[in-house]
Amino acid sequence: MIISEKQLQDECAKVAEAEQDHSDAVINAMDDVLPPAYSDHVQHTEIASSCSTEFRPPSKPTNFLSLILKDKPIRGCYVIDPLMQIPLSLLPPPNAGETDQDRKNLYLCTKDGSIDADIWLIGQEDAAPKNSSRTSISLSSNNGSITAKINTVKVVAPFLLDIHTRDGRVTVLLPRSFHGSLFLTTRQSAKLSDDLLRRSTILSTVEHTRRYFVGDISHRLFGNDWNGDELKVVSLDGRIIIRYKDEAELPKIGFFSRIFSS
């Protein structure tokens, strides 16, 4: 069969046209499944990131809360508003040796159980809290470990956190706003996280008690009294671990590590 030059050109043109139609169809199909242009994606992300939600505690606040158990653990979330007024007629009698003025804003006590408390302190919008007194928190257990995490909402008043256990380990997670003294008493080890240690000034080590000051200590102490944040921990035979609540957990020390690091 003999094909003329004109027929060959016509056949080549038809093949080229068919290939172009196929390429256009493939491109159109890809456009249907490709993500939007980069500028559209960035604009959507910026709009989403600019939206904010109001930060709320997990439950309604209370004040002067006491929870005393005998042989059970205490675990829960406790939201404390130190400015909330509660009639004395609705409160239990003060603890032995205390008056109504000595009431703790939060008092958790168990004899033979552990304590795991997620504590929220409610503050105010003002830069300086109107409440001149410190928020007082007490956690105690004779034979159990204690874990306390302190969360703050808005600008909170200074707080005093007092923790006592005889045989259990104590772990405290502090907010970044903590500015004040640490009193740590134990016959075992007392560890501060690296970040917290960098912000602390060691004041003394006397027998089994270590004292630190977290934050700028200059021009802060007037006379012999300190009414700012304060953490007191006593665990006679348990380890003490203190870190910021947004820090990673401290690495656990194994048996051989304790031997060679001692």
Give an overview in words.
The chain has two domains: 5-50; 65-249, no CATH class. The protein is 21% helix and 33% strand. The chain has helices at 5-33, 38-50, 194-198, 255-261, and strands at residues 65-69, 74-80, 106-110, 115-122, 135-141, 146-153, 159-165, 170-174, 180-186, 190-192, 200-206, 209-214, 229-235, 240-244. It is globular, with a radius of gyration of 32 Å. It starts with a helix and ends with a helix.
Question: Descriptors for this entry?
Answer:
alpha/beta; DUF7330 domain-containing protein; disordered C terminus; single chain; 262 residues; 4 helices; disordered N terminus; globular; 14 strands
